[in-house]
Task: structure prediction
Amino acid sequence: MDLRFTDAEPTAQERDLIEATVPRVEVVEHPGRVVRGGHDARSQRHLLLPALAAVQAGIGHVSEGALMEICRRLTVPPAEAYGVASFYALISTEPRPPRIAHLCDDVGCGPFGADEVIAEVQRRLGPAGASTDGSGWARSPCLGQCDRAPAAYLQRAGQEDAVVAGADVSDVDHLVAALDDHPVTAPAVTVPQQGEPGLRLLARIGSVDPTSLVDHRVHGGGEALRRALELGPDGVRAEVATANLRGRGGAAFPTAVKWDAVAAHDDPKYLICNADESEPGTFKDRVLLEGDPYRLLEAMTIAAYATGCRIGYLYVRGEYPVATRRLADAIATSRQAGLLGDDVAGAGFAFDVELRRGQGAYICGEETALMESIEGHRGEPRNKPPFPTDTGLFGRPTVVNNVETLLNVTDIVLEGGQAFAELGTRDSTGTRLFCLSGAIAVPGVYEVTYGETLGALLERAGGVTGELAAVLLGGAAGSFVTAEHLDVPLTFEATRERGLALGSGVVMPFDAGTDLGRVVARIAAFFRDETCGQCVPCRVGVVRQEEALVRYLSNGRETVELELLGDIDRAMTDASICGLGQTAASAVRSAIAQRLV
Amino acid sequence: MSRAQARATVPVTIDGRQVKAVDGERILDLARREGVPIPTLCDLEGLSVHGGCRLCLVEVGEGARLHPACGTEISEDQQIRTDSPTLRDHRRRIVELLFAEGNHVCSVCVSNGSCELQTLATETGVDHIHYELEHPRHDVDASHPLFSLDRERCVLCTRCVRVCDEIEGAAVWDITQRGGESRLVAEMDVPWGEATSCTSCGKCVQVCPTGALSRRGSATGEMRHDPQIAAFLARAREHGEWIDRPPAPNGDGPRSGPKAGGS
Ligand SMILES: Cc1cc2nc3c(=O)[nH]c(=O)nc-3n(C[C@H](O)[C@H](O)[C@H](O)COP(=O)(O)O)c2cc1C
Ligand code: SF4
Ligand code: FES
Result:
């Protein structure tokens, strides 16, 4: 294939940023065109998104010259690179204000202070997208900070990106100053249950120093890996099977089944840790990543050892700057200490972790979209089958696991799968993290043994503030429940029986004073913004759903709209390619069915 | 003999009928060979699978799970149903949603009478659009000397993207943005006539299922597409045979394969 590039050139600064991400590979060049023959260049396609992100972070947008330079180096057709760049919300191919405050107006922030903040920011900085002395703002979907609502993500060209939340956002003076140039210090990671006995996943959060390998060891780090090496790969997988560990990323798939399938395949094969957490209302993985990064690396190492993967990708949400920096440091330190590399811990197996940052696309949390994203393509989910365990990243067998799922593995190897299986119920073993935010007295991440009811969990978090109207359970892809559901045990089986799902562990109560119509409409808008658009029922369905819903809410709840909504629901739920389209009607449907709107 | 024929055959059931399928072939290939009609839009023989239109969904197995016939390999003893009230409902809804998304006014379209969306509407029984029409507003890109692009008629099937990339090897097209904002663009969103990578081969126009891509100067109902060109060229390339092909309906489609040196 012959590729044609225009002669648009990057600036010196852009070239340096690209150079640092994509080392130049020699390709045979003729004037004006490049022979797409250089295998070495083509095989670097996976650097496309990191290169775009590097330019975006340095300059504030990706110019035509920069994009063309990236295309030349990676021998990617300009149309494709442009298609990729424009897919991601955090990347702009047009000049935009170098400093942007992405203000969350999603379900956990909008009714809890964000609407007022946005009105005030708009008064000061002008309409969204405009620039006032280089500062601008944009609305954002949930930023994974709902326990500290309202939240903002600050994207600042040439400076570190940062998150501010709570009083630092409500105080708009502070917000605007922070956007300008304040270095933002990350607050200490805390959880409401800190110090309580019986915590497992959260046991070290707040007590272990997340920036210190030494402190990780002082708190027992390394013991699980030693035990795993004694058990051997088959032994580790057997313990995980006995433990009956199920995925915590939303689909509740048995982890051992995936691991066994991949273990049976030859090299190359890959491990992916899915840390793209973007389900509205979800922030548990952020707390784990920020609070205990070394434990995650240890868990990934054990998973890789058990499945025979030599390379792991850790795909972390772009709007999680603190987690990203801590993970990058932890990876570098672990390499120096011989815990990652050709001979892990002197045990004779190789494993290394590559950190990847998302760039603002909820859909990239879907496992096959995530793979497309790593490979340097638009984050469009693949048809399944084939499943990732056979044909995954770069077409090779791949294990994908959520952060929380993986963290369970250290305890499972230390205590044995049997001990783990004895916690909880028969089908829901171990403990589970729940993300409590919204109208709740003490928001935060809670860890409970499977089996606790919704009502007990709300009480544990200090109870609902005000009169309970509804709880969003499982996230935007989940459902609304009411006081009638307070007796539901939060297990896979009990929720399934009631037609519900735990999803990513979201528990977001709303009080009677909240306009639930707006909340439901915000969810519909979320899916409209986040669909990838490759399949017709979802691409058109989410737009139509939002319109019909808004008409329904404003026109006195007419039944014609309900018929349309039902029709769209059936098309999306049954005919969409991936879980986004398949669940995009769930919350709307549940709200209408229970007459909450 | 094609590679598929060399493979083992396995029994499967399609609409209650026991048939022999070639191990590894797609449900769609099997159905076509057996004369079972399954509607498709984005799929085109000769190009890679896209699987986005979802019109070819069929029910597979006991639980009647829906799988796209274009992207699903058959497996032994599979039970496939290509027709049911549910499937007919979905197909009609999908076509309706497509009509609502664009400006598909057949009576004034260059492709009237040669439009796969129009045919699908007839086949799936769409006689009314229940959704509010979106009426998108896009300028027609008439910057190319031979062809034009009307995005209001584009159904984002990506046939043009794939034929240009996989057969012509020019990679002029891609989709930009995402979701409802998705748009077909040439290179980095330049007017088509300024896209230096375009060889003016016209393959994208031939494979377009609607009136989105057309030959310039076509009047209403005059445009005749020739989507089979993709399969012809793919086969010719696979077998290294470049026999002459009868001219395309309008007489000026590509008649032979890619230029020497094309991929
Ligand atoms: C639209 C969509 C978004 C998703 N986002 C995430 C996510 O952010 N994190 C995650 O772990 N899983 C997410 N998933 C689920 C993944 O596809 C996959 O099932 C999961 O990562 C597997 O890990 P587990 O088995 O450990 O849960 C998402 C799924 C869909 C359909
Ligand atoms: S269901 Fe939606 S998000 Fe998923 S592939 Fe289809 S269009 Fe994309
Ligand atoms: S951070 Fe705003 S809703 Fe989650």
